[in-house]
Amino acid sequence: MSFVHLHLHTLYSLLDGAIRMKDLIKTVQGFQMPAVAVTDHGNMFATIDFYKKAKDAGVKPIIGTEAYVAPKGRKDRSERSSHHLLLLAENAEGYANLRYLASKAYTEGHYYNPRIDKELLRERSKGIFAASACLGGEIPQLLLRGSTDKAREAILEYRDLFEPGHFFLEIQPNGLAEQIRVNDALKQLSKDTGVGLLATNDCHYVLKEHARAQEILMAIASGKTLADANRLRHESAEYYIKSPQEMIEYFADVPEAIENTLRIAEACNLELKLGNPRPPSFKLPEGTNEDEFMVALAQKGLEERFGELRKKGLAFDPDQYRARLELELGVIKKMGFSGYFLIVQDFINWAKNHGVPVGPGRGSGAGSLVAYSLRITDLDPIPYKLLFERFLNPERVSMPDFDVDFCQTNRYKVIDYVTGRYGRENVGQIITFGSLKAKSVVRDVCRVMNLPFSEADKIAKLIPDVLGISLKQAIFGDPAKGIAGEPKLKEMLDQPQPLGVRMQSPGETEEKEVTTKDLLEIAMALEGLHRQPGMHAAGVVIGDKPLWETVPLYQPPNDPILVTQFAKEEVEQAGLVKFDFLGLKNLTVIQNAIDWVNKKLPPEEHLESSMLPLNDAAAFELMTKGDTAGVFQMESSGFTEMVKALKPSCFEDVIAAGALYRPGPLKQKLPGTDVTMVELYIERKHGRMPVEYDHPLLEPLLKETYGVIVYQEQVMQISQVLAGYSLGRADLLRRAMGKKKPEVMQKERAGFMEGAIKNGIAEAVAARVFDGMEKFAEYGFNKSHSAAYAVVTMQTAWLKAHHRVEFMAALLSSEKESTDKIVLHIADARAAGVEVLPPDVNESQYDFSVVGQRILFGLGAIRGVGEAAIEAIVAARKDGPFKGLFDFCERVDLKRVNRKVIESLIKAGAFDFTKVERRRMFESVDRALERGQCSQRDKAIGQASLFGVLSKKCGKSVETEDYLQGEEWPEKERLRLEKEAIGFYITGHPLEQYRKELDRYARPCTKVQQMRKEQKATIAGVVVSLREKVLQSGKRMAWGTLE
């Protein structure tokens, strides 16, 4: 006889289940179990991940959940407790009902836990097997309280909620005294009621020895330490995936409890239809269909684009455009994607028409002329040789994917529009899962063990700062990825040292000393487990019907937004189409800068982002000088250095720069050469190396990149021109080269050679060309994406070159939450001669603003001054400027502008217009607040005089700014407090007194940027931050910031 586990918690039972999916499948296969169920707490997060892995392994997946049942109804909030109930999908109807229940648990019943109730179960119980669950179930709880009669009533009630023979009484082998009592009682009640027994083990971890790690995991979840006797924990170490033999032996007296697991497993035959995502239907005008409507819109849109091209004075061949449009439309219609294009163009054009900036394009979609005609994208693909087949291959049917950049500030408006258009129940965002990472899990385990923070920090800092590094890699190294192991971590594992804490693991009778080895082993066991749900930064799904009919739904606490319980790839597997609504801060910067510029221009000269030139000498000069702070894509020091060497002289160079600035082209020497791809491009551009072509036919394809294959599209065009490939087949070759499978490449080489020889290309030349394509293909980049992003690069560079003040004000506003970036951008502005004025309560807005040719500091960038306080300040000054601190406190809403806000404003210099020393104002805050509160109380009850003079009990009139007497803070202290408020020095600098010495011995930072590479320089400043980092090689480096 075999056995099937039907009650099991994976890593999707967040911070409770410690079973990874691959370990589950491997264990079940090892036990030769025919099936297994996953029943995570209150959710169905694991469904697709589990289903696919189980199917691939030949194990029958049973989809379930351990639901929380609210005793008084899912909408009741009078008590926190809820009862557990095991639910398993028998068939498609049962799976649909589980999705409904799991969704309602979050959208209607979430109170501490996502809860359902018996009312929902009555409505949605068909096709579901259910069981009484663990000791947290309603029936076990009644039995533990000695209420056997009520337990019998509950059994009969649950039995009648479900179809005949679909409710069972769970007995478990965890060995706890309470469980043994419940098991015995349930065995008798099974005989009394005729409700069958079901043997389960409520599995939470794979192996028995994992009990200790799972206990730590539960403590991480509750925020408790091992010293807390009241923490939630399993008192037994038996919650592992037991073998069939163990389960059969334990329940030898009730073999039917084992047999019932097999009966349920055999009855559960859910087959999910995965893949084939379909977009919702687009609402069309009467008398037309999706194909006809899209064709009409695209043709009309292309004619409008012709008008724009003529307005710009650009030459073009209308017949070439129309032929390309017809080709693309044919492919789109044949693949059935007209509706998808209509949906995307609809929300993008709504955004543009409602003042939400939209990016010119992103990804391979920028290669589509249909997309350009529908205004999905704003870059003409034809002049830049962008290929539609790179986006939608007629020889390989796959869903198109438009990633769309919106202004970060107003992205939410587009999501609101889509929600309103398609219905709230039909639109949602996509879940993500935050995981326990290497450093964070070490800190978490240390906290649970009650180790000092300094100890935890010391150990965590030994882990190299490598993105995605695992603890195993940090300890043992990973030569394949160039990661050197940290010797001190290895020593902690090999030579365990006591940590001064003791721990009693579940199932053990004695406490044991915890060592460094224990710490690292527990951390490695927990690393990678899911910690909490979140929302995908961009993903939005739109359905034709309520989303729960396709996927179960999650809803964050106190948030009305719907979120799928399946992650990004799984949502599409389930049948929904994902639309990416990305937020790009740079679009906000561009639009805000243009708005500032337009304020000083007559209406007929107003700028629009789409009309900014893509070839501009001043913008190219700015890049060549390395003046790229705030220029999209070029902000990093590495990109700045590359573009200084490249010296762009045309838009095509900017496109190439975006494609070249990646690790491969920058660092890897090309096979058979001593230069990188970047070096080859730069040397050829400037004539220091000859531009060579293996065949004259290659020159038109590679001339713009000086004979270097920079783009994937060039590989496709070479295959088309030399070997006679269709662009669809050429795209398949591009994909094959990216995967580098030897057997596939051998076949592709033969096909290319055959086609090239047929076209009259010499065999040796064809072989050399194919070798070149292979060599460069590893580093080739998507030209459509690079070209679309180069537009944003040029727009930011043009604005900075021609309207620096307005651009810098917009840039500073976008970074007001980041003191480090504000410091850098203000230094950049000052280096260019742009004055940045200190904040002023009478003049400053929430954001940075433009005053003539100067920038006024924004109140929103002052630490401790929130948006609500600023709104109150702006509202109050509509009645006239503030005379001083006392007048300010009388007029602003003191419920929103408190003492801390006022103190921050004083320290930042926002009251300097009064000419009163900051220290005197700071020490007068209590007096000013008291006077202001009294005045506002009097006004509220009508006691203020006709002339606004305070009543006698309030003291003097506010017109008498009655500051305490005293001297100003010493300069050093005044500047320290100023920096405390705004993050840097704005009205002076501590080193100002050493100006003569600095001028003599140190070089200004602005001149350092103009120095030759590897030239030495002495600089001076105040150290404001220092960060140490362990490199992959094991060496230590430090990064510091001087101010």
Q: Any idea what the shape is?
A: globular
Average pLDDT reading: 91
Number of β-strand runs: 20
User: Can you tell me the number of structural domains?
Assistant: 5
Number of helices: 43
SS-derived structural category: alpha/beta
End-to-end separation in angstroms reads: 75 Å
Going by CATH, what is the homologous superfamily of the largest domain? Metal-dependent hydrolases
Q: How can the largest sheet be summarized? A: 7 strands, mixed
Strand coverage percent = 5-15%
CATH topology of the largest domain: TIM Barrel
Unreliable stretches (pLDDT < 50, length at least 5) are: 944-950
The CATH architecture of the largest domain would be Alpha-Beta Barrel
Which bin fits the share of residues in helices?
40-55%
CATH class category of the largest domain: Alpha Beta
> Could you tell me the radius of gyration in angstroms?
34 Å
Question: What are the SSEs and their pairings?
Answer:
Blueprint: H1 21-30, E1 35-41, H2 47-56, E2 60-69, E3 83-89, H3 92-107, E4 115-116, H4 118-123, E5 128-131, H5 138-144, H6 148-161, E6 167-171, H7 177-193, E7 197-199, H8 211-222, H9 244-250, H10 255-267, H11 290-311, H12 318-335, H13 338-353, H14 369-373, E8 403-407, H15 411-422, E9 427-435, H16 438-448, H17 453-460, H18 471-476, H19 487-494, E10 498-503, E11 512-515, H20 516-526, E12 530-542, E13 553-554, E14 563-564, H21 568-574, E15 577-584, H22 585-598, H23 617-624, H24 637-646, H25 651-660, H26 663-667, H27 677-685, H28 699-702, H29 712-723, H30 727-739, H31 742-758, H32 763-777, H33 783-802, H34 804-814, H35 819-831, E16 836-837, E17 849-851, E18 854-856, H36 867-876, H37 885-891, H38 899-908, H39 918-923, H40 925-941, H41 971-982, H42 995-1001, H43 1005-1008, E19 1023-1030, E20 1036-1042
Parallel strand pairs: 1-2, 2-4, 5-6, 6-7, 8-15, 9-14, 16-18
Antiparallel strand pairs: 2-3, 3-5, 9-12, 10-11, 12-15, 13-14, 17-18, 19-20
Helix pairs in contact: 5-6, 8-16, 8-20, 11-12, 11-13, 13-15, 16-17, 16-20, 22-33, 22-34, 23-33, 25-33, 29-30, 31-32, 33-34, 34-35, 37-40, 38-41
